[in-house]
């Protein structure tokens, strides 16, 4: 399996865009919240932009799309059909389970509705970009889907390999682990990861990527036995 190099690009207050490095110094960007930090990262790394992948239409994930498109006349932009119409710029709508060859990389789109109805996760080699669906130790808010819909999306992501590297849309890990520790007070894995995340954040470092193995051990939403338990957790997290 491909193990693409992934470069974190901090954006806004706690968002991440990601550069995925393909063949010939080409890179894809996932969720460019802003154009400037993405442009700077490309320049610093000596990479040219070959495509934009949007996990969903919210402004804090697509804010830089129009500007990057203006600078690159033929840049392909992908989003799920439902969210594509809500993104400014020329977006190519894609559907569940489509594969696209971009920058020499196989990009596999997984439809994971719940946060928005058109939410996508992208699988590129061993890297998984989950947007605001699955966070490290957490789960996105149910803006458009219900708990059953999001639970089904989690089951799908949860079926991927243990070694899958998980890159999500926000640096929410520490707060999510505090909730996880409340939900599963006896969990050693959660307590240890919380201590680690606090230490990393105190040093100003990112806590991503996670892995699916780590998520299986520390993400209460991935560990939920059924849709009812998932719904209970999501409701509890809303007022935590
Ligand atoms: Zn969002
Ligand atoms: Fe977001």
What does this 3D model show about the protein?
This protein is an alpha/beta fold and 240 residues long. Helices cover 36% and strands 26% of the residues. It contains ten helices and 14 strands. It has helices spanning 35-45, 59-62, 65-71, 81-84, 147-158, 173-183, 188-202, 212-218, 220-223, 227-238, and strands spanning 5-11, 15-21, 26-30, 48-53, 77-80, 92-94, 99-102, 105-111, 120-124, 127-131, 134-135, 138-139, 165-168, 210-211. A hairpin with a 4-residue loop joins β2 (15-21) and β3. α5 (147-158) crosses α10 and α6 runs antiparallel to α7 (188-202). It is globular, with a radius of gyration of 17 Å. The mean pLDDT is 97. The site of fe (iii) ion has 6 residues, from α2.
Keywords:
binds zinc ion, Metallo-beta-lactamase, Chain A, six-stranded mixed sheet, alpha/beta, binds fe (iii) ion, 240 residues
Gist of the model:
The chain has 240 residues and is an alpha/beta fold. The chain is built from 10 helices and 14 strands. A hairpin with a 2-residue loop joins strand 7 (99-102) and strand 8 (105-111).
């Amino acid at each position: 399996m491909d193990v693409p190099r992934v470069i974190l690009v901090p954006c806004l207050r706690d968002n991440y865009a990601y550069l995925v490095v393909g063949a010939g110094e080409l890179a894809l960007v996932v969720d460019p919240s802003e154009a400037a930090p993405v442009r700077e990262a490309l320049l610093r790394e000596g990479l040219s932009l070959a495509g934009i992948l949007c996990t969903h239409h919210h402004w804090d994930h697509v804010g830089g799309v129009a500007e990057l498109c203006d600078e690159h006349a033929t840049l392909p932009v992908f989003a799920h059909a439902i969210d594509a119409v809500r993104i400014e710029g020329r977006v190519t709508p894609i559907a569940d389970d489509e594969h696209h060859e971009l920058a020499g990389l196989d990009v596999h789109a997984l439809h994971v509705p719940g946060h928005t109805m058109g939410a996508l996760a992208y699988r590129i080699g061993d890297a998984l970009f989950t947007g605001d669906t699955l966070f490290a130790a957490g789960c996105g808010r149910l803006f458009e889907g219900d708990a059953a819909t999001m639970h089904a999306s989690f089951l799908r992501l949860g079926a991927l390999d243990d070694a899958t590297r998980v890159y999500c849309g926000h640096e929410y890990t520490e707060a999510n682990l505090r909730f996880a520790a409340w939900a599963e007070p006896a969990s050693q894995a959660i307590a240890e990861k919380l201590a680690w995340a606090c230490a990393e954040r105190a040093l100003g470092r990112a806590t991503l990527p996670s892995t699916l193995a780590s998520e299986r051990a520390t993400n209460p939403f991935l560990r939920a036995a059924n849709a009812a338990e998932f719904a209970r957790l999501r409701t509890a997290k809303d007022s935590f």
